[in-house]
From TrEMBL:
Annotated pathway: Purine metabolism; purine nucleoside salvage
Function: The purine nucleoside phosphorylases catalyze the phosphorolytic breakdown of the N-glycosidic bond in the beta-(deoxy)ribonucleoside molecules, with the formation of the corresponding free purine bases and pentose-1-phosphate.
GO biological process: nucleoside metabolic process
Name this protein carries in UniProt: Purine nucleoside phosphorylase
Length: 315
């Protein structure tokens, strides 16, 4: 059977309507239903023989975080049946797993972005897979452009909230039929970035002598960067930095009952004055993220050690 026939058949069964009449997120969620995601998780489980408790998503240029794993092993996304592929420079497309400071960790070296052509539901499929693998807490990282003039290139920023026009305007991964086995239909999101985990992260930053900032992450859909007016709009509405990921991932993690902590590395300063030079360049962003990743790696590693000291964090 042709793939499009199969998709139409699945969608027709759920909605009694042709797929053409539905949004991409609704189609994705119908196709990647609980059974299909369970079979992806089972496929991974049978190969890794390992129950991860912490998931890490590596942002652009931040995949070396995975080298913190002592006995690291890997699964390529490309080998996993019906799993998307990474297409962006700085995203390897690998699940790395093993023990990090004695806690079982699975690390995504590569995420999926809506601008690659994936629906937000597809971009966040891995969060549902992680949930079924046994993950309780996710550490989401990204490279972001600094909007708030108090942020400098190389700063680490703990995310306390997000502001996402795409999420607010129907690029929401939870659109479509809901399966309560993952989470509820309507999801409260005012405390996605757990306050106690943020306090723990700040404590870690202090003990490591790192200047950890805190702020709001703004999401645009990309792949074009922001106009000056876009940037001013985000800044005026509370965003301190801007990027093209994270918010939809954090939303699905929260929906699935996973605890979330998220970090941005500020890789460039966003132009907030008309006719200023535009320095946004992806290769440069990846280069800066790689150069400045050491602090992020130290922080994540120490944070995981602290998580290991109290089993309640991973309940
Ligand atoms: O995957 P992240 O969010 O770290 O990547 C950032 C946002 C865009 O994908 C890209 C822009 O250069 O880097
Ligand atoms: N200006 C800008 N810089 C970034 N650095 C990483 N992501 C982004 C982005 O979306 N915009």
């Amino acid at each position: 059977m042709e793939n499009s026939d199969l998709i139409n058949q699945i969608v027709k069964k759920e909605f009694n309507l042709p797929a053409e009449l539905l949004s991409q997120d609704a189609i994705t969620n119908a196709y990647y239903n609980y059974d299909k995601i369970s079979s992806i998780a089972k496929w991974i489980e049978e190969r890794i023989h390992f129950k991860p408790r912490i998931g890490i998503i590596c942002g652009s240029g931040l995949s070396d975080i995975a080298y913190l794993i002592a006995d690291k092993q890997e699964i390529q996304y490309a080998d996993i049946p019906e799993f998307p592929r990474s297409t962006v420079h700085g995203h390897k497309g690998v699940f790395a797993y093993g023990n990090l400071n004695n806690l079982p960790v699975i690390c995504m070296q590569g995420r999926f972005h809506p601008y690659e052509g994936y629906s937000t539901a597809l971009c966040t499929l891995p969060l549902k897979v992680l949930k079924l693998l046994g993950v309780k807490l996710v550490i989401i990282t990204n490279a972001a452009g600094g909007l708030n003039p108090s942020l400098s290139v190389g700063d680490l920023m703990l995310i306390k909230d997000h502001f996402s026009l795409p999420l607010l305007s129907m690029q929401n991964p939870l659109v479509g039929h809901n399966d309560e086995r993952f989470g509820p239909r309507f999801v409260p999101v005012s405390n996605i970035y757990d306050k106690k985990l943020r306090a723990l992260m700040h404590k870690c930053g202090k003990e490591l002598n790192l200047d950890l900032k805190e702020g709001v992450y703004g999401t645009i859909s990309g792949p074009s960067y922001e106009t000056v007016t876009d940037s001013l709009f985000y800044l005026k509405n509370g965003a301190d930095c801007v990027g093209m990921s994270t918010s939809h991932e954090a939303t699905v993690a929260c929906y699935c009952g996973l605890k979330v902590v998220a970090l941005s590395i500020i890789t460039d300063k966003v132009a907030i004055e008309y006719d200023a030079e535009d320095g946004s360049d992806h290769n440069e962003i990846v280069k800066i993220a790689k150069l400045k990743a050491k602090d992020a790696e130290k922080l994540v590693s120490y944070f995981i050690t602290q998580l290991g000291m109290d089993s309640r964090w991973l309940e």
